[in-house]
Write the C-alpha coordinates for this entry.
Amino acid sequence: MQHTLTILGATGSIGRSTLDVVRQHRDRFRVAAVVAGSNASALGKIARDMGAEFAALADGTKLADLRAELGGSGIACGAGESAVIEAAERDADIVVAAICGVAGLGPTHAALASGRRIALANKESLVCAGRAFMRDAAEIGAEILPLDSEHNALKQALAAGVIDDVLGMTVTASGGPFRTWTRERMAAATPADTAKHPTYSMGEKINVDSASLMNKGLELIEAHHLFGLRADQLDAVVHPQQIIHGLVHWRDGSVTAGLAHPDMCVPIADCLSGERRLDIAARRLDLAAIGSLTFEAPDEARFPCLRLARWALEEGGAMPTFLNGANEVAVAAFLAGRIGFLDIARVVEETCEAAASRSRPAPASVEEALSIDAESRRIAVSALPRTAAPALAGL
Ligand code: NAD
Ligand code: MG
Protein backbone atom coordinates (compact mmCIF):
# COMPACT_ATOMS: atom_id res chain seq x y z
CA MET A 1 0.00 0.00 0.00
CA GLN A 2 1.21 3.48 -0.82
CA HIS A 3 1.53 6.05 1.99
CA THR A 4 1.47 9.78 1.53
CA LEU A 5 4.16 11.61 3.43
CA THR A 6 4.86 15.20 4.40
CA ILE A 7 8.27 16.19 5.76
CA LEU A 8 8.56 19.26 7.98
CA GLY A 9 12.28 20.11 8.15
CA ALA A 10 13.13 18.21 4.94
CA THR A 11 16.59 19.77 4.48
CA GLY A 12 17.83 18.98 8.01
CA SER A 13 19.59 15.97 9.43
CA ILE A 14 16.37 14.04 10.21
CA GLY A 15 14.80 15.24 6.97
CA ARG A 16 17.72 13.90 4.94
CA SER A 17 17.65 10.55 6.77
CA THR A 18 13.91 10.34 6.09
CA LEU A 19 14.56 10.95 2.38
CA ASP A 20 17.21 8.24 2.50
CA VAL A 21 14.60 5.74 3.75
CA VAL A 22 11.98 6.95 1.25
CA ARG A 23 14.44 6.60 -1.67
CA GLN A 24 14.84 2.93 -0.77
CA HIS A 25 11.06 2.43 -1.14
CA ARG A 26 9.91 4.88 -3.78
CA ASP A 27 6.98 2.66 -4.71
CA ARG A 28 5.61 2.77 -1.14
CA PHE A 29 5.64 6.53 -0.59
CA ARG A 30 4.19 9.56 -2.30
CA VAL A 31 5.42 12.91 -1.00
CA ALA A 32 2.68 15.46 -0.39
CA ALA A 33 4.64 18.41 0.98
CA VAL A 34 8.17 19.35 2.01
CA VAL A 35 9.07 22.24 4.31
CA ALA A 36 12.32 23.96 5.24
CA GLY A 37 13.53 27.16 6.89
CA SER A 38 15.26 29.29 4.28
CA ASN A 39 17.31 27.23 1.80
CA ALA A 40 15.32 27.54 -1.46
CA SER A 41 17.86 25.66 -3.55
CA ALA A 42 18.05 22.61 -1.24
CA LEU A 43 14.27 22.47 -0.80
CA GLY A 44 13.65 22.89 -4.51
CA LYS A 45 15.94 19.96 -5.33
CA ILE A 46 14.24 17.73 -2.75
CA ALA A 47 10.76 18.67 -4.00
CA ARG A 48 11.74 17.86 -7.59
CA ASP A 49 13.51 14.63 -6.68
CA MET A 50 10.53 13.43 -4.62
CA GLY A 51 7.86 14.69 -7.02
CA ALA A 52 6.26 16.56 -4.12
CA GLU A 53 2.93 18.35 -4.63
CA PHE A 54 3.85 21.37 -2.52
CA ALA A 55 6.99 22.99 -1.09
CA ALA A 56 7.07 25.68 1.60
CA LEU A 57 9.83 27.80 3.09
CA ALA A 58 9.42 29.55 6.45
CA ASP A 59 11.43 32.52 5.21
CA GLY A 60 8.86 34.73 3.49
CA THR A 61 11.51 36.65 1.57
CA LYS A 62 12.58 33.55 -0.40
CA LEU A 63 9.41 32.93 -2.42
CA ALA A 64 10.89 34.18 -5.70
CA ASP A 65 13.98 31.98 -5.22
CA LEU A 66 11.83 28.92 -4.54
CA ARG A 67 9.60 29.68 -7.56
CA ALA A 68 12.72 29.93 -9.72
CA GLU A 69 14.01 26.60 -8.35
CA LEU A 70 10.72 24.90 -9.12
CA GLY A 71 10.09 26.57 -12.48
CA GLY A 72 8.51 24.20 -15.01
CA SER A 73 8.08 21.38 -12.47
CA GLY A 74 4.40 21.99 -11.79
CA ILE A 75 5.11 21.83 -8.04
CA ALA A 76 3.12 24.43 -6.11
CA CYS A 77 5.01 26.46 -3.52
CA GLY A 78 4.69 29.12 -0.87
CA ALA A 79 6.76 30.98 1.68
CA GLY A 80 6.13 32.40 5.15
CA GLU A 81 4.33 31.09 8.21
CA SER A 82 0.97 30.50 6.51
CA ALA A 83 2.59 28.47 3.70
CA VAL A 84 4.30 26.25 6.29
CA ILE A 85 0.97 25.69 8.05
CA GLU A 86 -0.69 24.96 4.70
CA ALA A 87 1.95 22.30 4.05
CA ALA A 88 1.48 20.78 7.53
CA GLU A 89 -2.29 20.59 7.08
CA ARG A 90 -2.20 19.05 3.61
CA ASP A 91 -3.69 15.62 3.22
CA ALA A 92 -1.07 12.99 4.17
CA ASP A 93 -0.95 9.68 6.02
CA ILE A 94 2.19 10.56 7.98
CA VAL A 95 3.83 13.87 8.81
CA VAL A 96 7.48 13.69 9.83
CA ALA A 97 7.87 16.56 12.32
CA ALA A 98 11.56 17.43 12.12
CA ILE A 99 11.77 21.21 12.38
CA CYS A 100 14.34 22.19 14.97
CA GLY A 101 13.30 23.88 18.21
CA VAL A 102 10.23 25.82 19.24
CA ALA A 103 9.70 26.85 15.59
CA GLY A 104 8.31 23.32 15.14
CA LEU A 105 5.45 23.77 17.60
CA GLY A 106 2.92 25.54 15.39
CA PRO A 107 3.41 23.43 12.24
CA THR A 108 3.57 20.14 14.18
CA HIS A 109 0.39 20.99 16.05
CA ALA A 110 -1.33 22.09 12.83
CA ALA A 111 -0.59 18.64 11.37
CA LEU A 112 -1.83 16.95 14.53
CA ALA A 113 -5.02 19.04 14.61
CA SER A 114 -5.70 17.94 11.02
CA GLY A 115 -5.70 14.35 12.28
CA ARG A 116 -2.40 13.32 10.72
CA ARG A 117 -0.25 10.58 12.16
CA ILE A 118 2.85 12.36 13.45
CA ALA A 119 6.34 10.83 13.38
CA LEU A 120 7.76 13.12 16.04
CA ALA A 121 11.41 14.16 16.01
CA ASN A 122 10.74 17.70 17.24
CA LYS A 123 10.99 16.90 20.96
CA GLU A 124 10.65 20.60 21.81
CA SER A 125 6.93 20.33 20.93
CA LEU A 126 6.39 17.97 23.85
CA VAL A 127 8.79 19.76 26.18
CA CYS A 128 6.98 23.09 25.64
CA ALA A 129 3.39 21.99 25.25
CA GLY A 130 3.30 18.26 26.01
CA ARG A 131 0.07 18.32 27.95
CA ALA A 132 -1.77 20.18 25.18
CA PHE A 133 -0.27 17.97 22.45
CA MET A 134 -1.14 14.68 24.15
CA ARG A 135 -4.64 15.89 25.08
CA ASP A 136 -5.36 17.09 21.53
CA ALA A 137 -3.94 13.90 20.00
CA ALA A 138 -6.23 11.81 22.22
CA GLU A 139 -9.28 13.98 21.45
CA ILE A 140 -8.68 14.00 17.70
CA GLY A 141 -7.56 10.38 17.57
CA ALA A 142 -4.24 11.36 15.96
CA GLU A 143 -1.31 9.09 16.61
CA ILE A 144 2.08 10.38 17.78
CA LEU A 145 4.86 7.97 16.82
CA PRO A 146 8.15 8.62 18.62
CA LEU A 147 10.95 9.09 16.10
CA ASP A 148 13.61 10.09 18.64
CA SER A 149 15.80 6.96 18.85
CA GLU A 150 15.41 6.39 22.61
CA HIS A 151 11.64 6.84 22.58
CA ASN A 152 11.26 4.76 19.48
CA ALA A 153 13.17 1.96 21.22
CA LEU A 154 10.94 2.37 24.29
CA LYS A 155 7.81 2.25 22.15
CA GLN A 156 9.01 -0.98 20.55
CA ALA A 157 10.01 -2.47 23.93
CA LEU A 158 6.61 -1.55 25.37
CA ALA A 159 4.97 -3.95 22.94
CA ALA A 160 6.21 -6.73 25.27
CA GLY A 161 3.59 -5.86 27.92
CA VAL A 162 1.07 -3.28 29.08
CA ILE A 163 1.88 0.18 30.40
CA ASP A 164 0.28 -0.55 33.82
CA ASP A 165 2.98 -3.17 34.45
CA VAL A 166 5.83 -0.73 33.82
CA LEU A 167 7.90 0.25 36.85
CA GLY A 168 10.09 2.68 34.96
CA MET A 169 12.06 3.47 31.83
CA THR A 170 15.69 4.28 31.13
CA VAL A 171 16.97 6.29 28.18
CA THR A 172 20.61 5.99 27.23
CA ALA A 173 22.94 8.86 26.36
CA SER A 174 26.16 8.72 24.38
CA GLY A 175 27.60 11.21 26.86
CA GLY A 176 28.34 13.56 23.98
CA PRO A 177 31.72 14.85 22.82
CA PHE A 178 32.60 16.22 26.28
CA ARG A 179 31.90 13.01 28.22
CA THR A 180 35.45 12.82 29.57
CA TRP A 181 36.18 16.58 29.62
CA THR A 182 36.80 18.58 32.80
CA ARG A 183 34.76 21.72 33.51
CA GLU A 184 37.91 23.78 32.84
CA ARG A 185 38.24 22.28 29.38
CA MET A 186 34.52 22.74 28.70
CA ALA A 187 34.83 26.43 29.60
CA ALA A 188 36.87 26.91 26.42
CA ALA A 189 34.74 24.64 24.18
CA THR A 190 33.80 26.03 20.76
CA PRO A 191 30.75 25.29 18.58
CA ALA A 192 33.03 23.20 16.35
CA ASP A 193 33.89 21.02 19.37
CA THR A 194 30.19 20.28 19.95
CA ALA A 195 29.88 19.07 16.36
CA LYS A 196 32.18 16.12 17.06
CA HIS A 197 29.39 13.87 18.28
CA PRO A 198 30.63 10.33 18.87
CA THR A 199 27.81 8.48 17.13
CA TYR A 200 25.42 10.75 15.16
CA SER A 201 25.67 13.54 12.59
CA MET A 202 23.00 16.04 13.63
CA GLY A 203 21.81 19.64 13.38
CA GLU A 204 23.85 22.28 15.23
CA LYS A 205 21.32 22.94 18.01
CA ILE A 206 20.96 19.28 18.99
CA ASN A 207 24.76 18.94 18.80
CA VAL A 208 25.09 21.56 21.54
CA ASP A 209 22.24 19.97 23.53
CA SER A 210 23.97 16.59 23.29
CA ALA A 211 27.26 18.09 24.48
CA SER A 212 25.58 19.74 27.50
CA LEU A 213 23.32 16.69 28.15
CA MET A 214 20.35 19.08 27.93
CA ASN A 215 19.21 16.80 25.11
CA LYS A 216 18.89 13.93 27.58
CA GLY A 217 16.99 16.16 29.98
CA LEU A 218 14.60 17.20 27.21
CA GLU A 219 14.18 13.51 26.38
CA LEU A 220 13.14 12.67 29.95
CA ILE A 221 10.42 15.33 29.66
CA GLU A 222 9.50 13.94 26.22
CA ALA A 223 9.20 10.40 27.69
CA HIS A 224 7.03 11.69 30.53
CA HIS A 225 4.49 12.99 28.02
CA LEU A 226 4.69 10.15 25.51
CA PHE A 227 4.34 7.33 28.02
CA GLY A 228 2.61 9.04 30.96
CA LEU A 229 5.29 8.14 33.52
CA ARG A 230 6.25 10.28 36.53
CA ALA A 231 9.65 11.94 36.87
CA ASP A 232 10.76 9.36 39.48
CA GLN A 233 10.03 6.52 37.03
CA LEU A 234 12.40 7.91 34.40
CA ASP A 235 16.17 7.96 34.35
CA ALA A 236 19.14 8.28 32.01
CA VAL A 237 22.36 6.31 31.81
CA VAL A 238 25.48 7.11 29.80
CA HIS A 239 26.22 4.36 27.27
CA PRO A 240 28.96 5.55 24.90
CA GLN A 241 28.51 2.80 22.27
CA GLN A 242 24.82 3.76 21.78
CA ILE A 243 23.69 0.26 20.94
CA ILE A 244 20.99 0.08 23.61
CA HIS A 245 18.67 3.08 23.22
CA GLY A 246 15.94 2.54 25.78
CA LEU A 247 14.95 0.04 28.50
CA VAL A 248 11.52 -0.75 29.92
CA HIS A 249 11.58 -2.13 33.48
CA TRP A 250 8.61 -4.38 34.24
CA ARG A 251 7.14 -5.09 37.69
CA ASP A 252 8.28 -8.74 37.60
CA GLY A 253 11.94 -7.71 37.26
CA SER A 254 12.09 -8.33 33.51
CA VAL A 255 13.67 -5.65 31.37
CA THR A 256 12.96 -5.20 27.67
CA ALA A 257 15.50 -3.17 25.74
CA GLY A 258 15.59 -1.68 22.25
CA LEU A 259 18.90 -2.20 20.44
CA ALA A 260 20.22 -1.05 17.08
CA HIS A 261 23.27 0.53 15.54
CA PRO A 262 23.12 4.29 16.10
CA ASP A 263 21.53 5.22 12.77
CA MET A 264 18.44 7.48 12.68
CA CYS A 265 17.20 5.63 9.59
CA VAL A 266 16.28 2.76 11.92
CA PRO A 267 13.70 4.61 14.07
CA ILE A 268 12.55 6.53 10.97
CA ALA A 269 11.89 3.25 9.15
CA ASP A 270 9.91 2.03 12.15
CA CYS A 271 7.75 5.18 12.07
CA LEU A 272 7.18 4.91 8.33
CA SER A 273 6.41 1.21 8.28
CA GLY A 274 2.87 -0.09 8.34
CA GLU A 275 2.02 -3.55 9.64
CA ARG A 276 5.17 -4.99 8.10
CA ARG A 277 8.66 -3.63 8.78
CA LEU A 278 10.53 -1.84 6.02
CA ASP A 279 13.53 -3.54 4.54
CA ILE A 280 16.28 -0.90 4.64
CA ALA A 281 20.04 -0.91 4.19
CA ALA A 282 20.81 -0.99 7.91
CA ARG A 283 23.90 -2.64 9.37
CA ARG A 284 23.23 -5.97 11.03
CA LEU A 285 24.06 -5.83 14.74
CA ASP A 286 27.08 -7.99 15.56
CA LEU A 287 27.60 -7.95 19.34
CA ALA A 288 30.76 -10.07 19.23
CA ALA A 289 32.35 -7.53 16.88
CA ILE A 290 31.31 -4.68 19.19
CA GLY A 291 32.83 -6.57 22.12
CA SER A 292 31.65 -4.62 25.14
CA LEU A 293 28.80 -2.34 26.08
CA THR A 294 29.63 0.03 28.91
CA PHE A 295 27.51 2.21 31.18
CA GLU A 296 28.12 5.03 33.64
CA ALA A 297 25.94 7.33 35.71
CA PRO A 298 25.61 10.82 34.20
CA ASP A 299 27.67 13.38 36.11
CA GLU A 300 25.20 16.17 36.90
CA ALA A 301 27.95 18.26 38.51
CA ARG A 302 29.83 18.48 35.21
CA PHE A 303 26.60 18.56 33.19
CA PRO A 304 24.21 20.82 35.16
CA CYS A 305 21.77 21.09 32.22
CA LEU A 306 20.62 17.53 32.91
CA ARG A 307 20.01 18.40 36.58
CA LEU A 308 18.06 21.53 35.55
CA ALA A 309 15.88 19.62 33.10
CA ARG A 310 15.13 16.91 35.68
CA TRP A 311 14.22 19.62 38.14
CA ALA A 312 11.92 21.31 35.57
CA LEU A 313 10.21 17.97 34.97
CA GLU A 314 9.66 17.44 38.70
CA GLU A 315 8.50 21.04 39.13
CA GLY A 316 6.00 20.65 36.29
CA GLY A 317 3.63 23.45 35.28
CA ALA A 318 5.22 25.79 32.75
CA MET A 319 8.77 25.18 34.00
CA PRO A 320 9.80 22.91 31.08
CA THR A 321 8.55 25.61 28.67
CA PHE A 322 10.71 28.20 30.44
CA LEU A 323 13.67 25.81 30.48
CA ASN A 324 13.40 25.16 26.75
CA GLY A 325 13.07 28.83 25.76
CA ALA A 326 16.09 29.80 27.87
CA ASN A 327 18.09 26.93 26.43
CA GLU A 328 17.31 27.99 22.85
CA VAL A 329 18.48 31.55 23.58
CA ALA A 330 21.63 30.32 25.31
CA VAL A 331 22.48 27.79 22.59
CA ALA A 332 22.01 30.43 19.85
CA ALA A 333 24.26 32.82 21.83
CA PHE A 334 26.88 30.08 22.19
CA LEU A 335 26.72 29.20 18.48
CA ALA A 336 27.11 32.90 17.68
CA GLY A 337 30.31 32.92 19.73
CA ARG A 338 28.85 35.34 22.25
CA ILE A 339 28.86 33.23 25.41
CA GLY A 340 30.94 30.32 26.62
CA PHE A 341 29.72 26.74 26.79
CA LEU A 342 29.34 26.80 30.58
CA ASP A 343 27.23 29.96 30.36
CA ILE A 344 24.44 27.90 28.75
CA ALA A 345 23.54 26.22 32.05
CA ARG A 346 23.92 29.52 33.92
CA VAL A 347 21.46 31.34 31.60
CA VAL A 348 18.99 28.44 31.86
CA GLU A 349 19.29 28.33 35.65
CA GLU A 350 18.80 32.09 36.07
CA THR A 351 15.75 31.99 33.81
CA CYS A 352 14.23 29.03 35.65
CA GLU A 353 14.87 30.73 39.01
CA ALA A 354 13.06 33.85 37.81
CA ALA A 355 10.24 31.68 36.44
CA ALA A 356 9.91 29.75 39.73
CA SER A 357 8.56 32.85 41.44
CA ARG A 358 5.87 33.18 38.73
CA SER A 359 4.49 29.65 39.32
CA ARG A 360 2.62 29.21 36.04
CA PRO A 361 0.46 26.21 35.06
CA ALA A 362 1.36 24.02 32.09
CA PRO A 363 0.29 25.74 28.86
CA ALA A 364 -3.15 24.57 27.73
CA SER A 365 -2.55 25.43 24.07
CA VAL A 366 0.23 26.10 21.58
CA GLU A 367 -0.56 29.83 21.78
CA GLU A 368 -0.06 29.79 25.56
CA ALA A 369 3.16 27.81 25.17
CA LEU A 370 4.49 30.33 22.63
CA SER A 371 3.62 33.21 24.93
CA ILE A 372 5.50 31.57 27.84
CA ASP A 373 8.36 30.83 25.44
CA ALA A 374 8.53 34.53 24.53
CA GLU A 375 8.54 35.46 28.24
CA SER A 376 11.33 32.97 28.87
CA ARG A 377 13.39 34.36 25.99
CA ARG A 378 13.09 37.89 27.40
CA ILE A 379 14.38 36.73 30.80
CA ALA A 380 17.15 34.67 29.19
CA VAL A 381 18.34 37.55 26.97
CA SER A 382 18.62 39.72 30.09
CA ALA A 383 20.71 36.96 31.71
CA LEU A 384 23.23 37.06 28.85
CA PRO A 385 26.37 39.14 29.38
CA ARG A 386 25.70 42.79 28.40
CA THR A 387 27.90 42.62 25.32
CA ALA A 388 25.88 39.68 24.03
CA ALA A 389 22.40 41.04 24.67
CA PRO A 390 21.81 43.70 21.97
CA ALA A 391 22.62 41.50 18.99
CA LEU A 392 20.46 38.73 20.38
CA ALA A 393 17.47 40.83 21.31
CA GLY A 394 15.53 39.34 18.41
CA LEU A 395 15.92 35.80 19.69
P1 NAD B 1 18.53 20.47 11.60
O1 NAD B 1 18.95 21.79 12.11
O2 NAD B 1 19.51 19.62 10.88
O3 NAD B 1 17.26 20.64 10.65
C1 NAD B 1 16.17 21.47 10.98
C2 NAD B 1 15.21 21.56 9.81
O4 NAD B 1 14.16 22.48 10.15
C3 NAD B 1 15.82 22.10 8.52
O5 NAD B 1 15.19 21.51 7.41
C4 NAD B 1 15.47 23.59 8.57
O6 NAD B 1 15.46 24.21 7.29
C5 NAD B 1 14.08 23.52 9.17
N1 NAD B 1 13.65 24.75 9.83
C6 NAD B 1 14.37 25.52 10.67
N2 NAD B 1 13.61 26.56 11.10
C7 NAD B 1 12.40 26.43 10.52
C8 NAD B 1 11.18 27.16 10.57
N3 NAD B 1 11.07 28.27 11.31
N4 NAD B 1 10.12 26.70 9.87
C9 NAD B 1 10.23 25.60 9.11
N5 NAD B 1 11.34 24.85 9.01
C10 NAD B 1 12.42 25.26 9.71
O7 NAD B 1 17.95 19.69 12.87
P2 NAD B 1 17.85 18.11 13.10
O8 NAD B 1 19.10 17.62 13.73
O9 NAD B 1 17.32 17.44 11.88
O10 NAD B 1 16.75 18.05 14.25
C11 NAD B 1 15.38 18.31 13.98
C12 NAD B 1 14.56 17.92 15.20
O11 NAD B 1 14.71 16.52 15.41
C13 NAD B 1 15.01 18.60 16.50
O12 NAD B 1 13.91 18.86 17.29
C14 NAD B 1 15.89 17.55 17.16
O13 NAD B 1 15.91 17.64 18.56
C15 NAD B 1 15.19 16.27 16.72
N6 NAD B 1 16.07 15.08 16.69
C16 NAD B 1 17.17 15.06 15.89
C17 NAD B 1 17.98 13.94 15.87
C18 NAD B 1 19.19 13.87 14.97
O14 NAD B 1 19.88 12.82 14.96
N7 NAD B 1 19.51 14.87 14.21
C19 NAD B 1 17.67 12.83 16.67
C20 NAD B 1 16.53 12.88 17.46
C21 NAD B 1 15.72 14.01 17.47
MG1 MG C 1 17.48 11.04 21.12
Q: What stands out?
A: The first helix runs from residue 13 to 23. The CA atoms of residues 263 and 355 lie 37 Å apart. The chain has 17 helices and eleven strands. Residues 148-150, 219 surround magnesium ion (ligand 2) (CB under 6 Å).
